[in-house]
Each structure stands twice: as C-alpha cells, then as structure tokens.
Amino acid sequence: MDFATLIGLVGAIMLIASAVILGVSPEVFLNPASLLIVVGGSLLVVLAKFSFSQFFDAFKVAARAFKFKLPETQASIDELVEVAQIARKQGVLGLEGRDVSSPFLAQGIQMLVDGQDANTIKQLLNKERLMTLDHNRSGAKVFNALADVAPAMGMIGTLIGLVQMLSNMEDPKSIGPAMAVALLTTLYGAMIATMIATPIADKLSLRMTEEARMQSLYIDALVAIQEGTNPRIIEQMLSSYLPPKERAKKGEAETVSD
Predict the structure, then answer these.
(1) What's the DSSP call for residue 77?
(2) Could you tell me if 215 and 125 are in contact, meaning their C-beta atoms sit under 8 angstroms apart?
C-alpha cells in the first residue's frame, strides 16, 4: 500500500469535510443537480475522448496509485548478479525454473534458457517495456482528461444555475436553489480535478517511470548475461541505476573493503 497517496487524498478530503461540518449545515453542500452535471457530465465527456476499453481500464490502472510495489533497486541488482553467477558456472540452462521477483525478469530468463541471442532478447523485451509504458500512459491520460473536464463542467453548471436564477427573479424561492447549483458545480469540479484526478494521474506517471526504469535494468543485465559478461562487471554496470546517495555509499563501502 502506498501510504503517501492514501494519506494525501484522505487527508485532503477530511480537511474539506471538517471545514464543511464546522460551518453551516452540511446538507447545504449536497445538491443532486450539481452532482449530476459535474460527475456524470465529466465522466461522459471523458468517455467521448477515449475508447470503452481505455476508459474502463484506466480505473483498473488507478489502483496502482494506491497499491504498487517494485523491488528495491539494490535488491534487484543483487538478484541479477546471482543469476549471472549461476549462468556463468552452470550455463543458462541452470536458470530454468528459477523463481525470481518479477514476471518481466522471468520472461527474460526464459528467453536465455531458450537460447535466444542478445539482440533478440533486447528487441523483444524492449517491445514488452513499451507496451507496459503505453498501458500506464493511457490510464494517466484518462485522469488528466478528467482533471481538465471537471472544472469546465463545473463552470457549465454555474452558468446553468445563473440562467435559472436570472430567468426567475420574480420568484424569490427559486433564487436559492438556482444559486446553489451555480456555486456547488464549481466547487465539485474543482474538488474532483484538484483532489482526485490530478494526484492519481501524476502518481500513475510516476509509476510508469519507475517501472520502465526497472525494466531497463533487467534488459541491460539479461543482455550482458547472454553475452557472457563477468558478473562483477555486470554489478558495476547496473550500479548506475542506483540513486546518487546509494551509489556513493556503495562506492565508499567498496573502498573500505578493498
């Protein structure tokens, strides 16, 4: 579970809810017509921008904003170095049936076992990486579109409320409900865009970058293993994927051990 996403979204919603509860009656902020215009209208407009599969898949992909776990970079490097050592001592057939931490890595190891050359492995895994990127990017695009559409639908609702209010000025009882629609649609649109759609879209983009980076690490290691590169050289090569602080610490540790 990604607690940063959960705490951020739930915390923001709770702060707004607290402000509503501490003010006037919370019922004032509930208006079915405003919800219909903003929520229903926004979803339908976003649907018009994408295919059915892209639209519905985006909400499945959104779960990755809350629950998604990649192996630590250093742990992956250690795992790949161990794989390289086995391949060097026993040959690539010694890797058959080995349990690994990633389905992507397992797919690459199976290619090694099947005797694919380094160029083929690189091409096939890069294609798989690009497909994963496209899948994640599509989900982020849907939520970015929702972040753009929701405030606009809120403005449309505001205009509808103002027209209703101005066309019935002789009836004082109609002014209040019409003004509620006018103001609440803007509020709902801003809340959906700022507190839900944009954070999820940004987190999906982050997930996309993290996963692509890890897959690139796997590809580099598998190609090097196929080419018979020394495991020690592979470890040094993969260290470039570490964050600068971890790389510096590792360098210091190696210096001390030498």
Answers:
(1) H
(2) yes
Task: Confirm if 197 and 213 have CB atoms less than 8 A apart.
Answer: no
What pLDDT sits at residue 252?
56
Q: How far apart are CA 188 and CA 209, in angstroms?
A: 31
CA angle 125, 130, 131 (to 5 degrees): 95
As a residue count, the chain comes to 258
State the burial class of residue 113 (Cβ atoms within 10 Å of its Cβ: 0-12, 13-18, 19+): middle
Is residue 255 scored above 70 in pLDDT?
A: no
190/96 Cα distance (integer angstroms): 53
- Alpha helices by DSSP H, listed for the chain, are 3-22, 32-35, 41-49, 52-61, 73-90, 103-113, 118-167, 172-191, 198-226, 231-238, 244-257
pLDDT at position 198 is 93
How many whole angstroms separate alpha carbon 225 and alpha carbon 109? 10
Which of 144-175 are b and which e, b meaning 16 or more Cβ less than 10 Å from the residue's Cβ?
Answer: bbbbbbbbebbebbbebbeebbeeeeeeeeee
Find the angle CA(71)-CA(77)-CA(82) to the nearest 5 degrees: 115
